[in-house]
Design brief:
The structure holds two protein chains of two kinds. Chain A is mainly alpha-helical. Chain A has a single domain, classed as MetI-like (MetI-like fold). By secondary structure, chain B is mainly α. Chain B has one domain: MetI-like fold. Chain B has a two-stranded antiparallel sheet. Chain B is flat. Chain B starts with 12 loop residues before the first helix and ends with a helix. Chains A and B meet through helix 3, helix 4, helix 7, helix 8 and helix 9 of A and helix 3, helix 4, strand 2, helix 5 and helix 7 of B.
């Protein structure tokens, strides 16, 4: 089988298209690279959707954390505490078994036990909590003068939030938020190790890498392939966020506009 | 096992739970919490040492050494840590066996990789086939510790490298002006001062390490996740004296609470440590402490 054939039969395997049976003997480099790359679709699906939806909840929770009302602040604090204080791995397990027992009592919940929805919900809540903490920190760091200037111009309420508070918060939070996005995409590799089933062997990149490593008993080929894909993905995320940063900082003097990806350990 | 638990079928209510929670398997579950704590206790200093080495390499004035150090830090940032865990456990194992194979069975002429098999001579196997079970368990655990240390060493290197650069340049220049050599400057001026800059990053890293500890399960160690899955699964009367439905949700809820308590306690302790370390330091935190002390509690 030539590499082009392999590409045709396995390039969309993780979505359930193409050849049904995974290769079982005579593994070629091409097969490994194709299947692991096809699994990356799941990582991008989980990461992109969780990040996009999580953004809105994160802003809401961050605002609630800074609220003067205890009935808003307390739940927000508990939410971030629970999701930031416990391992994502355990959250996945707990979420899966919770959904499983929900399904047994109310069959309507059965889609939740699939990775596509159930794991996405866990990731959404998890990244919301981490991002909320970042945004909350940024809200606290908004220069007092900016807010006073907004008051002086007669801005208040929603207009003040939309035109001053929110853009400044986003600008200050951006480097840490970039980091969170990278970590989130990395965290998506945990999904298929935690009970969420890879139905018909439709798994993510790490799922296929592990499959090959176990079949060939040689970790030195599949994992470096996986690493290569993830480095590319990480670079793509950094590139995208750099575009965002340029837009957020376009009113700043040139010196402040220079942007470097700053890697910190935050998760 | 309590003597009252001799006949579980007659038990009811609280005493059933009491007996159920003290079965041999549950005791193994409780000891596995010790395994996790032991992993953290061994890994943290090992990772710190590796991280220190990595940061020193990254600062090296010899370009190839600096590349190695920077590459070590960078690669772990770009690739999911779980991929490293899965990789290193097997790679280290095969690496050790291959080394022993080359030394102990020098006259072996067949290749080590035959198709999908990894073949080394019998006396090079780790641990030996004849070794008792506990040796196998210790070896598995040691591999896990080494893997954790390598991955978290890279994180620590990142933090320590940043901390070394954060020490005010004037301090180093003063040391040089006094005629200290490069090495003396490093050990007598830089290293003692860097910790206060490193502590926020290191405490963050400790939290990340705690939260990575359940990944031990993926490395084949019988840890808390293993037992929670095992004990929580539904049990029929055929196989156990204590039949019950699918309780895995509750077991994992318990693990969730355990980790929440653990990270919370760590956070409080690290906060105190930070406050003590910043005391009297010429940084914003120390200055804030001084001002509060002068004004008195508000």
């Amino acid at each position: 089988m030539s590499c082009l054939d392999t590409l045709q039969s396995y390039a969309l395997r993780s979505l359930g298209l193409g050849e049904r049976a995974l290769p079982t003997t005579d593994f070629t480099f091409c097969q490994q690279a194709t299947l692991i790359g096809s699994g990356l679709a799941w990582n991008i699906y989980f990461g992109a959707l969780a990040l996009l939806t999580g953004f809105f909840l994160a802003v809401a929770v961050a605002l609630a954390k800074g609220s003067d009302h205890a009935w808003l602040r307390k739940p927000a604090d508990w939410f971030t505490f629970v999701f930031r204080g416990s391992p994502l791995f355990i959250q996945f397990f707990f979420g899966y078994f919770l959904f499983l027992s929900l399904k047994q009592s109310v069959p309507v919940f059965s889609p939740l036990t699939s990775a596509a929805l159930g794991a996405l919900i866990v990731l959404f809540l998890n990244t919301s909590a981490y991002s909320a903490e970042i945004f909350h920190g940024a809200l606290q760091a908004i220069p007092k003068g900016d807010l006073e200037a907004a008051d002086a111009y007669g801005l208040a309420g929603w207009t003040k939030f939309r035109r001053v508070t929110f853009p400044t918060m986003l600008r200050l939070a951006w480097p840490a938020y970039t980091n969170e996005a990278i970590f989130l995409f990395h965290a998506t590799t945990l999904v298929f190790f935690t009970g969420f089933p890879a139905i018909q062997q439709k798994g993510d990149a790490l799922y296929y890498a592990k499959y090959f490593a176990e079949k060939t008993f040689n970790p030195f080929v599949p994992y470096p392939i996986l690493a290569g894909y993830f480095i590319l993905l990480t670079l793509a995320i950094i590139g995208l966020f750099q575009l965002g940063s340029r837009r957020l900082n376009r009113h700043m003097p040139a010196q402040g506009r220079r942007w470097r990806a700053k890697f910190q350990v935050i998760r | 096992m309590l003597p009252a638990c001799a006949d579980p079928s007659t038990l009811e209510g609280l005493s059933w739970y009491l007996c159920y929670l003290t079965t041999g398997k549950h005791l193994s579950f409780y000891t596995s919490f010790g395994t996790v704590l032991l992993l953290l206790a061994v890994t943290a200093p090992a990772a710190l040492a590796l991280g220190f080495g990595g940061a020193m390499l990254a600062r090296s004035r010899v370009p190839p050494l600096a590349w190695i150090g920077k590459g070590y830090v960078a690669i772990v940032r770009g690739v999911p840590d779980i991929a490293f865990f899965l990789f290193f456990v097997v790679a280290l194992d095969q690496g050790f066996e291959y080394l022993r194979h080359r030394i102990m069975c020098a006259d072996w002429d067949q290749p080590v990789r035959q198709g999908n098999d990894f073949v080394v001579c019998d006396i090079a196997k780790l641990p030996l086939n004849s070794s008792p079970q506990w040796m196998h368990e210790i070896y598995g655990f040691a591999l896990a510790v080494l893997t954790f240390a390598i991955v978290f060493g890279a994180f620590a290197a990142n933090v320590l490298y940043g901390a070394m650069r954060a020490v005010p340049r004037a301090q180093m220049e003063t040391a040089e002006a006094y005629g200290m050599t490069h090495r003396q400057t490093f050990w007598r001026v830089l290293v003692p001062q860097m910790w206060v800059y490193a502590l926020p990053g290191l405490s963050n890293l400790w939290m990340v390490l705690i939260k990575a500890s359940p990944l031990l399960f993926l490395l084949g160690v019988e840890d808390i996740v293993y037992w929670a899955r095992d004990l929580g699964g539904s049990k029929t009367p055929q196989f156990t004296d204590y039949p019950h439905g699918d309780w895995r949700m509750w077991y994992f809820l318990f693990l969730l609470v355990f980790y929440l308590a653990f990270t919370r306690v760590s956070e409080v302790v690290l906060d105190r440590l930070m406050r003590r370390l910043t005391h009297g330091q010429a940084i914003a935190g120390g200055e804030a402490q001084r001002k509060t002390a002068m004004v008195g509690p508000a």
